[in-house]
Amino acid sequence: MIKPGLKIGIALTLMLVLPTLFFSAYEMGNLSQNEMVVDSIYSSQLESILFSVNQYSDDVVSSWAYQLDNSKDGLEKEIRKISAKNYSIDAIAVVTSRKFRFFPKEKIPRDSLHLLQGTLERAFSDNHKMINNLQRYIKSGYQKIGVLETEMEGKSLFAFARKQASESGQTILFLLNTLKFVNENLGPKIQGVAQNRFYISVFESASNREIYANAIHEEEDKNIQHKKDIWLLPGYQMGIQMKGNTVEDLVHERTTTNFILLGVMNVVLLLGAWFVFRNIRQQIRLNQMKSEFISNVSHEIRTPLALINMYSETLEMGRVTSDEKRMEYYRIINTETNRLSSMVNKILNFGKIESGRREYHFQNSDLNSELDMVLQNYRQHLDRKGFALEFSPGNGLPIIAVDREALSEAVINLIDNAVKYSDQDRRIAISTGKENGFVFLQVTDYGIGIAPKDQALVFDKFYRVTKGDLAHKAKGSGIGLSIVKHIMEAHKGNIELRSRLGEGSCFGLYFPVNN
Ligand code: ADP
After folding, report:
1. pLDDT of 470
2. pLDDT score recorded for residue 351
3. pLDDT per residue over 161-217, tens digit each?
4. Which band of pLDDT confidence, cut at 50, 70 and 90, is reported for residue 43?
5. 67 C-alpha vs ligand 1 centroid, how far in Å?
6. Residue 510 contacts residue 497 (beta carbons within 8 Å)
7. Which of the listed ranges 140-149, 263-272, 302-311, 466-475 does the model predict with the highest average pLDDT?
8. From the CB of residue 509, how many other CB atoms can be counted at a distance below 10 Å?
9. Mean pLDDT of all residues in the chain?
10. Distance between CA 221 and CA 359 in Å, rounded?
11. Pairing of strands 388-392, 427-435
């Protein structure tokens, strides 16, 4: 059969803990997914910003192509106009299969001019496949800007086929200074889209060197990771990053906080469930002990009642002839009555303690004289049971405030236990003394002792040790030591227990000395 405590534990786990743990696990899974979704939305936003810059640079070059296609004053004039307006343009060339016309922006020495022209012609013939394609496209009405590879450092070379001269297969080449092109054309566009919210920079891909930045970044938060190639400038990339806390940072921060909150919630829940489970288990244990207590008490009351009943009936019937016998019967009746009344008193006192009605009346007393009085009445009883009592009063004990009745009740409880839980060695030692502002009394026996695991529990109400022969047989209610503990608490004192299984126990009561 499953124990009730275990049942409650299982029910709690199934009803509360498991669903919450599942929910947390699900939420945690969702959180990282959400983070990924937000991350991808953010990434595509950054990409679209970079896309718009790329698109713009394409538009710039396309607009030059348009201008040259629609020149009213003739091609050459238009070339000079565009060249003069755009300081990034180093030279423009008009090329057909037969002719190569070259328009450098500034006058350059003959040698250099030849060199430059030669380079352009080489680039033209090296890229003839692309040029052919551009010519094919224009015939079907599509003007594409082609990017030519060039060995000139810091320069970019674009080509497009002229619409106006598609029959003659005319191609226009633009030789640009890359850095100037970036500053002149991309720069203003980047400033416009960045709007002080983003860092946008242009990098040389191979060296990762920054050749343009939209803002001077003394800020330490700049670490651009998000990069895209620039369509028109092979070997160059644009990078973007949000200023201040990036969305990635914010989302990550939130996710971490949520993770921590969920974790804390789970820990609190588990602790709560454990706490409830422990309380319920304690209550169940207490209830079990309570019912054992009732059956023990009934038994303890019934035995003396039966004896009293039997001996008084025998006496009443006049069947006892000898005086000696009669005296013995009276003594038994007396002893059992005393036992009964002490039992009932104990239960009544316990009831008062439980309902918080027990009152204490303290008066200044000498512990040794109080003990003398208790032992005077009790010695005979111990003698009859075959116990040797040794009392060693300490010298010069200070006066303490005690409730005399409660003190005697506590001592009698301890002596009764010493008697109940002693086997062959029937010695009881009582001593008194003073120590660190306390006056103490100790009751020592040489009986069965108490196992370490039970030592803290014997002071709990209804707790009884039932392992071991004598402990099992001994009659008791399990409230004696809890009453002693309560009495000591009322005196603001302590109770201490030293015991070894099979060797005996020593209970010490410590009373504070009044200053
Ligand atoms: P009980 O009526 O069972 O004696 P108590 O509250 O006085 O109840 O004691 C609680 C338990 O502590 C006892 O059941 C017993 O197992 C253990 N105990 C108390 N005093 C002694 C002692 N002197 N020696 C061994 N065990 C003891």
Report:
1. 66
2. 92
3. 987 766 677 899 999 999 999 999 999 999 988 888 888 999 998 898 889 988 765
4. confident
5. 111
6. no
7. 302-311
8. 24
9. 88
10. 72
11. parallel
Cα 53 from Cα 189, distance rounded (Å): 7
Q: For 375, what's the count of Cα atoms within 13 Å in the CB-facing half-sphere?
A: 18
- Closest by CA to 133, choosing from 106, 161, 96, 154, is 161
Query: Residues enclosing ligand 1, CB less than 6 A?
Result: 417-418, 420-421, 445, 447-450, 458, 463-465, 471, 476-482, 505
**Ligand 1 closest atom vs CA 471:** 16
Q: Is 265 helix (H, G, I), strand (E, B) or coil?
A: helix
Residue at token pair 């030592």: 455
- Residue 144 structure tokens: 């594409």
Q: Are the CB atoms for 119 and 90 separated by under 8 Å?
A: no
Q: Which tokens go with 300?
A: 């303890």
Residue nearest to atom 4 of ligand 1 (CA): 476
**Is beta strand 171-177 parallel, antiparallel or unpaired with respect to 89-95?**
antiparallel
Are 278 and 292 spatial neighbours (Cβ–Cβ below 8 Å)? Answer: no
CB–CB of 139/166 below 8 Å? yes
349-366: pLDDT as tens digits: 999 999 999 999 999 999
- Atom in ligand 1 nearest the alpha carbon of residue 447: 24
**Smallest Cα–Cα separation from 174: which of 93, 287, 82?**
93
- Residue of 298, 464, 477 to mutate, ligand 1, most atoms within 8 A of C-beta: 464
Q: Encoding tokens for residue 27?
A: 């939420």
Measured in residues, the chain has a length of 515
What pLDDT, in 10s, does the model give residues 217-248?
Answer: 555 667 788 889 999 898 899 999 888 766 67
Tell me the CA–centroid distance for residue 476 and ligand 1, in Å.
8
Counting from 1 in the atom list of ligand 1, the atom nearest the Cα of 482 is 6
Q: Which atom of ligand 1 is nearest to the CA of 477?
A: 2
Q: Which residue is closest in CA terms to ligand 1's atom 7? A: 480
| pLDDT value for 4 | 64
Nearest CA to ligand 1 atom 20: 417
Q: Which amino acid is at 37?
A: V
Of 1 and 506, more confident: 506
Cα-Cα end-to-end distance for the chain: 58
Which one, of 20, 85, 40, lies nearest residue 248 by Cα? 40
Residues with Cβ within 8 Å of residue 284, at least 6 apart in sequence: 4, 5, 8
Q: How far apart are CA 418 and CA 507, in angstroms?
A: 10
By percentage, how much of the chain surpasses pLDDT 90?
46
Closest protein CA for atom 23 of ligand 1: 418
Amino acid in the structure at residue 188:
P
Nearest atom within ligand 1 for CA of residue 463: 10
